[in-house]
Each structure stands twice: as C-alpha cells, then as structure tokens.
Amino acid sequence: MQTQLQINGRGYALNADPRTTLLDALRNHLGLAGSKKGCDHGQCGACTVLVNGRRINACLTLACMHDGDEIVTIEGLGEPGRLSPLQQAFVNHDGFQCGYCTPGQICSATAMLAEIEAGWPSNVTQDVAGAPELTPEEVSERMSGNLCRCSAYPNIVDAIMDVAKGKRT
Amino acid sequence: MTRHLKVDERAHRDRLEEMVQGVIGEPLDRPEGQLKVSGRAPYAMDDLPEGCCHGVLVRSTIAKGALAGLDIDQVVALPGIRAVVTDKRLTKNPAQGMAGKAPAQGPEDIIYFGQPVALVVADTFEQARHGAQILGRRFEAESDVALNPDDPNAEIETPKKKQSSMGDLDKAIREAHFAIDETYTTPGHASAAMEPHASVASWDGDKLTLHGSYQMLHFNRAELADALNIDEEKVRIVATYVGGGFGSKLGIAPEGVAAAIASKQLGVPVAVAMTRQNVFEMVLRRSETEQHIRLAADEEGRLTGIGHEALVSNVPGEKFSEPVTQATPFLYRGENRVIGHRIARIHRTPAGSVRAPGEAVGLTALEIALDELAVASGLDPVELRLRNIPDKDPSQDIPFSSHTLAEALMTGADRFGWKTREPKPRSMREGEWLIGLGMASAARVNMLIESKARVTLARNGSALVETDMTDIGTGTYAVLTQVAAEMLGLPVSRVQTRLGDTDLPPASGSGGSFGASSNGTAVFLACEEIRRQLCERLECDPDELTLKDGHAVVGNRRIPIDEVMGGKDIVAEGHVEPGDAEDKVRQATYGSYFAEVAVNAVTGESRVRRMLGVFAAGRILNAKTARSQCIGGMTFGIGMALTEELIHDRRDGHIVNRDFAEYHLPVNADVPQIEVVLLEERDPWANPLQAKGIGELGICGAAAAVVNAIYNATGVRIRHLPATLDKVLSGLEDEDQS
Fold first, then answer.
1. Is residue A80 a part of any domain in this protein?
2. Does residue B511 sit within a domain?
3. For residue A168, what pLDDT band results from cuts at 50, 70 and 90?
4. Does residue A79 fall inside a structural domain?
C-alpha cells in the first residue's frame, strides 16, 4: 500500500503492508529508528511522535492513516551538536539512564509544553478555566504517559522546568 | 602488557587521590548522552541489516506437559512466511546470571505457561506476527501440577547449606523484653526494562554475529554457543546500547537463540524482539517470598536474636533461588540467630535475578519488622537501629571493611527533619489525607568480579578504553572514561570508551552492582601499566610522574604527552580478580531512606510526597550517574511498596497482568522530587579505586520506608506487599472499630 508521509520536513514514499503501524514504518521501513517500541500497546509512551503538532503513540496508529500528515520524530527535533533546548536539558539533568524511553519522553515533553501554552488543563489543574500554571506537579502529571523504568522522573521534571522557565522569561 | 591484580589485601595507597586531573567523581554528563537524546544511539533492533526477516515467538498455553503438535502447514502457506522454527535447541527460559552454559532447552517439553515453543519467521514483522497469532498448537497437559507455593503437591526443598543458626533463638525470644514474630509476604516482580529483549542474528559462513540486548556479554556468548552447540570463537555478540536490564538480561534469552537458529536455517539475517507480553512470561521474574521474621530485644531495645526464614519458588531444575536473607547475617547485632531458606518447586515462569536479588525483598521485610519493634519498644526507629549496629560481622566474627550505617541514619534524620515526626499514628491530618513519616536502613553486599579492559594511549595523546562491558543505563561510558582520564591526565574529551562487543576484552558484565568497580579497576590497572611505560620513556620514578591536561610533568620538565609517545601507541591491558580480601572482611554498602507518605482516609490511596536516600558506596566515580542510580532504585522501592505485583492464575499459573496496563510501574506522577545524599567514603578493601557498587543499594529496603510511613500515617501495618487500597482501607476500618 502506497502512503506519502511528511516526516521531519521531508517527503517519504512508503510502500508497506496496510497493517504496518506508524512506529514500524518509521523503524523498519524508513530508517528512523529513534522512536522506540516498548510495549506496542500504547502503554509505555516510548514511541511518542508528533503528528500535526500533537503527541501520539506511533504504535497505536497505522502508517497508512497518515497520508499527508506532518510528522515529527526525535530525529527531527535535533541532532548531536545541534540539540533542541529540551534535548540539551535532558543531557544536563541526566533525564535518562538507559535512554530507551528518552526519544518518547522528549517528543512528549515538546508537545506537552505547547499544550500548557495553549491553556489545556490537566487532572491536577486547580482552575480548569484559567491558564494552567507551570509547576512540577503539572509536568509530572502530564508526563505520566511516558514510563521510565530507570526512573529518571525527577530529573525529567527538572529538565522540562528548566526549559519552560527559560521560555517564559 | 597486562597488569594483573588479585585482590587479597587492602589497598595501601589511594592512587586516584594522588592524581591531579580532577575528573574522578565529578558529575560529568554521560558521553553518549547526545546520541541518546537525539534518537541516534543504536539499540539491538535499530539497525536492521539488508534483507532481514522478522521472527515472532509462540508460547505454550499450559503449565506442564508436552507439545503434541503444531499446525505448521496452515501458517507456512500464508504470504511472506519463511518458516516455523521448532528446533530442539530452542530454549525454554533465559540462562541465569553468569551461567556460562545453555539454559534448559527443548520446546516440546513444557514446564510453564508462556514458555516459547516455536518461532514464526516471515519477510515482514506484520506477516510473522499474524502467523504466530494463528499457529494452531496442541498440548498434552499433565494434571495435578504444582502451580502455587502453597499447593499441597508443591515439593519444598530445604537445602542444607542455606540453613544456619547460632545460639538459641527460641530461648532468646522467650526471655526477650520485646519480641516480634510475624510473617511478611512480597509478590513476584518483573524487571520490566523499557526495551523488550531483542536480538538480530546474522551468519557469515559458520560465524555468528548477534546484536542483542544483553548485560554480560562473554557469559552470553558462552551460553549462546553452548545452546547452538558450536565453538565460542564462532560467536560475536554486540550490545553497544542496552535499554535497561535490572537483571532481566543477565543470561541469554529465548529470542537470541531462536534468532540464531532461524538465521542459520534460512540463510538470511533474522530479527526477533519479544512482545511486552513475552517479556513478562518468558523472562525470569523475581520470586514471591514468604518471610517469617523473629526479633528478640532487651529492655534497651538491643537485639539479642534475629530469625529470618524464607520460602521462595522456582521451576524444578533451576539452581537460582532468591537469596532473601543475604544482608540479615551482618546488618544488626544479636547473638542468637536462625537463617532459613526453602524453595517451592512450582510451574510458573522461572525465577531469577531482578535488581538486588535478596536485599530488595529481604531487607524490606526485615525493616518493616524493625519498625514493629520500634513501636513495641517505644523507641524512635532511628535510635533503635543506631543501638543495633554491630562492631563486627556478628555471624562470621570478621571486621567490616568500612561501615557507614550510623552516619547515613543520622545524616538522613537531620536532612529530612525526622525530629518533627509524631511517633503516634494518625497524628497528622490534612483534610482527607493522613500524613506519616517512615524510615528504613539500606544495605547491600559488595562484590568484585573478574574483569579485563584494554586501554590505548595513542601517539596523538588521546586514549581509547575497550572492554566488552555493557552500559545498561548505569553510567559505564561515563565512569570508565573518567577513570582513564584521571589516571592518564587527560581531559575527558580526549578519552573514548568502546563497550559492548565480545571482540573486546571480557569484563564482569553489568549485574550485582559490581560492574563499575570491577571493570573500573581493570581500566585503572591498564592505566597503571601505561604510566609505568611512560616512566620508562621519561626515565623517571613512578612517584615522580604527574600527568595533567595532556602533559607529563617530571621535575621541572612539562612535556606534551604526544611528544612523550614518540610516534608510537601504548597498549595495555588490566585484569582484576577477586581474592582473599572478601573473606577477611565483610564488605557492604549502607544507607538510609526517609519517606513522607499521605494516605487518603476515604479511598486508601497512598502517595509518596517526599523521599530522601542517604548512601555510601566507597568512592563515587560520577556524582551525577550515581545519584540517578539511587533515584531509580528508590523508585523501584515505591513500586514495590504500592503497586507492583505479578498475579498468577492459581489454576494454570499464567501471569494475569502481563502488560503495563495491569502491572503497575511507578509513573512520573507517583514519584516525588527524590533527594539523594552521597556520603564521602573510601573502602580500601574493595579494590584500588576504593569504590563499591551503588546500582542496587537504592532499592534495598526502600519499600519499607514507605510502608512504615503508611503505618505512622494510619496505624495500619501492611505486612503483605504491595500496600494497595483494599489492604489499607480494610486496615483503616479495623482501626476505626478498635
């Protein structure tokens, strides 16, 4: 099955089994193995990518459903020597250990900050009508779809807070 | 040239202290960090070779019996299917850590529900997955199979060498001023590394290369070769990046052997990744435990006796049994002691090492019991522990190599604001939430494992460290780089570390918290040899040589290192082996945990609000990665205390909650901004680095601090982990009625 994918600003022609998930398309067909498979069931978040600016689990969607969509993967956020501010903050704060969940964490955090910016409330937002405050509690809550067994959670929160505060000042 | 050391004696010099580069111990960012955060670090399945086929494992759906048949024809007729592999060399379960030989093989004989019985291989993953899902299987199930440790037909082994006693514990309990006699249970746990086990096998003639997710490569190489019945020299394993291990990737696992067999059979590279459900079912779990603990204390709260008797389980034929009581013989004083160990032989997913086998669950139960003794005696839990720190190992009558428990307890109490705690339960309330503080001691045995490493000081003044050691997130790339940089007087940017390839000198591997200190010592020894050769060239005494910032300083000469090299590289190997030192002294790491927990009086939900860990593990090689390891360990403790539990169907032993939706790891919102304090310590008995293991210390008793805080908040004593809402709620109701 033919699908045109726009990934990290570049066009890709994918010819794959219609059962191919977006995650397997990236990893097995398009040479973009930065997105990781941790559970293949939408339970761990390691495969998080951005589709039209929103974070989704790439394992829970078929590649052929994304004809023409704008997809951003971890490879599109930065590269060694030219890291995104979040990627750099993860390095500085040791926001990972084994690094396997990290691409998903960083894609997730990238979209999460935009969600806060856009005023989306979360389960811990006190005033759902007002602008959510950027607190460690908000960040923890909103990052809870991304599991990390090494448990860099405190460092992940520190890294994200660093970048978010930098943006606001 | 090889520099060899067998550690029979204490180190008489602190060589790293004599160095001047100033990088050892520093919180260096991980050298591989940029690759990891940009998705460029290649894990086992990330760089599939051209023409690679995909394999998916098929499982048994009975606990014990025989595989009677597979409907292979139906599957091979599907598009893209290359083969259904049923080779007799397929393994039933992973090898245990450091086995060095094949685990149980033969898919036709079933010993647990979820055991792999075949591999479906196809051109694409989608085709293989479909074939595996529809492959018809027929089994001949045996009846009256022991599935649960308490089944009447479960054979219970009581290995003689795992029982010990001294004095008369029964008498001590009878004469005790305060006594505790309780039974605690912990359920099975999953390592649950984020990267599922994965291997990509390819053959060049009779030579196999396996890109796999493994922790201990030279052992894995021997295990894989043995499973395939070929020479070790024909096998190369590469594991440059490993997406977490926690013990689950110590031994060669079914997917690795299956990939190798399939690749040979089909003449193409074959990639096999376990599904997450496979990982839960086919990877060694931590055994559930039942622990009978008895404590006897005098009127001052000084222990006169300790009994710790455990029941664990494994499938018949597996040697490993969770060493629950590992820290009990030396942690606290007491002349009268009983250690008991029984193994129930049952047909569940086999048990093996999960982060800190032994102490993780054993110390957790012991530390809950200590909290019960504190309540019974009216002593502060910190004070009770301080009173019971022995002067020497009370079971072996040998000195401690170093001992920091008292300092860890006092530092932690001070930092955490322990003195504000109300000893009486239910003293603090905020609306619906009952607040409590709890604490526990941490302890873990320290080990040294034979290890080799090669260091090349290149003619251009850069250095290369090479070993088959792995970095499973533990910080190996960082700490080995730092050891070499410190010893050779180079900025870390001029040191490169290559890991994870059996073509390189064999290391300890990652496990048992011994990796950094064992392999770090091998790197240290190689660097000492390089320094010796530099002294020869410079015609100076070893004590006259200073290496710093890429220069050699001797007397009033300061020479760029590349000039000293004279156009030639120096290559040296370091080789360390454990020796008599470990019998002369008791080596262990210590620490303390403090937790503040809020328990909802209406729902029974427990939330960890604050947590502090204070740890000492000899010289800390990298303050940043060491801290991260401790945070990770404590988070495992939070999971153990509150949510993690493998649930087996009592009728067939299958794991009911075999995914992340049902086996609940702590998520970001479950973990507070944990604080870690690393105490300054040197342990000259451990190794010349004077460093000890820290990767597991953070989990050894952490759950007890949380459970003890729940008691302080509510008055509900949880003895059966995890402290789920149902247990807390029914406890609250009992409290209300009393």
1. no
2. yes
3. low
4. no
**B316, amino acid identity:** P
Whether residue B372 is found in the same domain as residue B405: yes
- Give the angle subtended at the CA of B21 by the CAs of B17 and B27, to the nearest 5°: 85
Note whether A97 contacts B635, CB cutoff 8 Å. Answer: no
Mean pLDDT of B441-465: 98
Q: In which band, very low, low, confident or very high, does the pLDDT at B146 lie, cut at 50, 70 and 90?
A: very high
Phi, psi of B281 (to 5 degrees): -90, -30
**Cα nearest neighbour of A102 on chain B:** B37
In order of B431, B437, B604, B708, the CA distances from B714 in angstroms are: 14, 11, 10, 10
Please list the alpha-helical segments (H only) found in B335-439.
359-377, 381-387, 405-416
Q: Are residues B543 and B598 in the same domain?
A: no
Strand order in the sheet with B81-85: B81-85, B116-122, B53-59, B270-273, B198-204, B207-212, B235-238
Looking at the fold, whether B477 and B373 belong to one and the same domain comes out as: no
Domain of residue A47, residue span: 2-74
pTM of the model: 0.98
Q: Are residues A59 and A107 in the same domain?
A: no
Q: B651 and B543 in one domain?
A: no
d(CA B628, CA B608): 18
Give the whole-angstrom CA distance, residue B76 versus residue B725.
49
Q: Summarize pLDDT for B200-255 with one digit per residue, the tens.
A: 999 999 999 999 999 999 999 999 999 999 999 999 999 999 999 999 999 999 99
Q: Give the angle A65-A67-A70 at the CA atoms, nearest 5°.
A: 105
Task: Name the domain count of chain B.
Answer: 2
- Whether A143 sits inside 8 A of B668 (CB atoms) is yes
B261 within domain boundaries: no
pLDDT at B179 over 60: yes
**Contact (CB<8Å) B192/A154:** no
Residues in chain A: 169
**Angstrom distance (rounded) from CA B713 to CA B709:** 6
Q: Which residue among the candidates B309, B318, B675, B696 is catalytic per the annotation? A: B696
Q: Are residues B438 and B409 in the same domain?
A: yes
ipTM topping 0.85: yes
Give me the total of CB pairs closer than 8 Å, taking one residue from chain A and one from chain B.
Answer: 202
Beta strand B53-59 pairing with B116-122: antiparallel
Q: Are B410 and B465 found together in one domain?
A: no
Q: How far apart are CA B691 and CA B405, in angstroms?
A: 17
E-assigned strand segments in A34-118 = 48-51, 54-57, 70-72
**Can you give the residue range of the structural domain that contains B591?**
355-447+584-737
Which of B528, B563, B578 is where one domain is finished? Answer: B578
Q: For residues A68 and A115, state if they share a domain.
A: no
Task: Indicate if B696 belongs to the active site.
Answer: yes
CATH code where residue B520 lies: 3.30.365.10
B706 and B642 belong to one structural domain: yes
Find, in chain B, the residue whose alpha carbon is nearest to that of A100.
Answer: B243
CA proximity to B350, closest of B105, B94, B118, B98: B94
Question: Residue B248: which residues within 8 A CB-CB, separation 6 or more?
Answer: B94, B190, B191, B192, B193, B197, B279, B283, B284, B354
Concatenated DSSP letters of B390-404: -SSBTTTTB-BS---
Helix locations, B19-105, DSSP H: 33-37, 72-76
Task: Give yes or no for a contact between B399 and B586, defined as CB atoms under 8 angstroms apart.
Answer: yes
User: Has residue B74 been placed in a domain?
Assistant: no
